[in-house]
Design a protein that fits this description.
The protein is of the alpha/beta class. It has two domains: 183 residues, Rossmann fold (3-Layer(aba) Sandwich), CATH 3.40.50; 200 residues, Rossmann fold (3-Layer(aba) Sandwich), CATH 3.40.50.2000. 41% of the residues lie in helices and 17% in strands.
Length: 439
């Protein structure tokens, strides 16, 4: 059996969609002739929000967990000064100092072994001194893991692969000014020189990355749903007391969240009856402020949950009758796959909405100028292919669809979802595809 060293910063028990991709490799690779050794960090999940990303680990030692499935090496995490200040005083204090410290590490980690993530490199290096592996894969972001994989490849003469869950220097979020655009682009080109190949989740990402990274072989390995979700939800019925709408994960700046909440407010005023459940969202405080200031009639309608462990989240979320999904255009994301596995009707907002188009133009991180390369309606196409939901045109359409669904729920005590062919999108199948590439 071949051995694969995986550098993965996001990894369970941390609640992150980014951690589910490498976790599926750990879970299934052994079935396809590969023994995975995962190097990650220790996660405490003590806050149930974004502060978990910078919270210190409870031990200064690397924790090693071995099983027949693979090995996990959980390295200690020490927050830098900026993060310590944030944890102690909150995000409104000492902002300039925090930016200064964060900027120092953001730049110098690319040239020296410094920064809060460097323990992954040291742990992997120590492991490779006494253990042989056949190849290395680093999954980003954070893309500093690519630097570590490149250094380990050179030092120990081991082939390495770069796995992009999303683009690096091509993303507006990571290149907010000209300096960081050039800085990230130079690092990306330099570090990827000795990579054997690049894996990524879509043809569109391949196109964007290959504009800067030339002469590399690309393999497309999409995301998927966790096969365990099917087993978890098999005997859990959807709620029959009140129509419930669920949403989980990150709300991006280009998502028309205020527009959607406004429609829900109108529906409540019109006498419709439903609940909205947000799970582990990144802007819970802003949603609460929006409700207090503009949509007070939703105070008893919207409930915001902290981040939950994936299994706990699935058990709670599957009780909903409907799942809300925002358009990510050329991004297919991972959320839609989890929704597919839970077999609840998906409402995609929006297909062609004026406000959404304005938000996309202003905030969307990647612009696709060639529709022949990739559609900008990937989620809508997947929903239609699997018959798993409704593609909502605009806010007026959302209002009308919700009225129909509320009537269906009142009459039947449930919302029917007749999805099909979802087995093609399991993470186990994706892991098998990647194992074939590596082998």
């Amino acid at each position: 059996m071949k051995k694969l060293l995986i550098l993965a910063y996001d990894f369970p028990p941390y609640v992150s969609v980014g951690g589910l991709r490498p976790y599926s490799w750990y879970e299934y690779f052994h079935e396809f002739g590969i023994y995975p050794i995962v190097v990650t960090r220790q996660w405490e999940n003590k806050y149930g929000n974004n502060l978990d990303y910078i919270a210190a680990s409870r031990t200064n030692d690397t924790i090693i967990e071995k099983s027949a499935t693979g090995t996990i090496m959980r390295t200690p995490y020490k927050p830098n000064l900026a993060n310590k200040i944030l944890l102690k005083y909150g995000e409104n204090k000492f902002r300039f100092l925090r930016k200064l410290v964060s900027g120092f590490y953001e730049i110098f980690q690319w040239f020296f072994n410094v920064g809060p993530k460097v323990n992954l490199y040291f742990a992997a290096k120590n492991y490779l001194k006494n253990n042989k592996v056949d190849f290395i894969i680093a999954t980003g972001s954070p893309f500093i893991l690519f630097r570590y994989a490149s250094k380990l490849s050179k030092k120990f003469n081991i082939t390495w692969y770069a796995d992009y869950r999303d683009p690096w220097s091509q993303s507006k979020n990571r290149s907010k000014n000209k300096f960081f655009k050039i800085f990230n682009n130079c690092n990306e080109k330099r570090i990827l020189k000795n990579a054997m190949a690049i894996t990524t989740v879509s043809d569109f990402f391949k196109k964007k990355i290959s504009e800067d990274i030339k002469n590399k072989t690309f393999f497309i390995v999409p995301n998927g749903y966790d096969d365990n979700v099917i087993e978890i939800v098999e005997n859990i019925e959807q709620n029959s007391e009140i129509l419930s709408i669920g949403f989980s994960g990150t709300i991006q700046k280009w998502h028309p969240i205020e527009n959607v909440i406004s429609v829900f407010s109108e529906l409540i005023n019109a006498g419709e009856n439903f609940k909205i459940n947000f799970y582990g969202i990144n802007i819970g405080d802003k949603i609460e402020l929006l409700i207090d200031q503009k949509f007070t009639n939703l105070k008893n309608v919207i409930k915001i949950y902290p981040k939950l462990k994936n299994e706990d989240y699935v058990k709670e979320a599957v009780k909903n009758n409907i799942f809300l999904l925002f358009s990510d255009y050329e991004f297919i994301g991972t959320k839609i796959y989890d929704y597919l596995a839970m077999k609840r009707l998906i409402l995609l907002c929006f297909n062609n909405d004026t406000e959404s188009n304005v938000l996309k133009e202003k905030f969307y991180t990647l612009q696709n100028t060639d529709k022949n390369i990739c559609s900008d309606k990937l989620q809508a196409e997947l929903i239609k292919e699997t018959n798993s939901g409704i593609v909502i045109e605009n806010s007026d359409d959302l209002y009308n669809i919700m009225c129909k669904l509320e009537k269906e729920f009142s009459e039947n005590g449930k919302i029917v979802c007749n999805s099909k062919n979802i087995e093609n999108y399991s993470r186990k199948k994706r892991a098998e595809d990647l194992a074939k590439i590596l082998n």
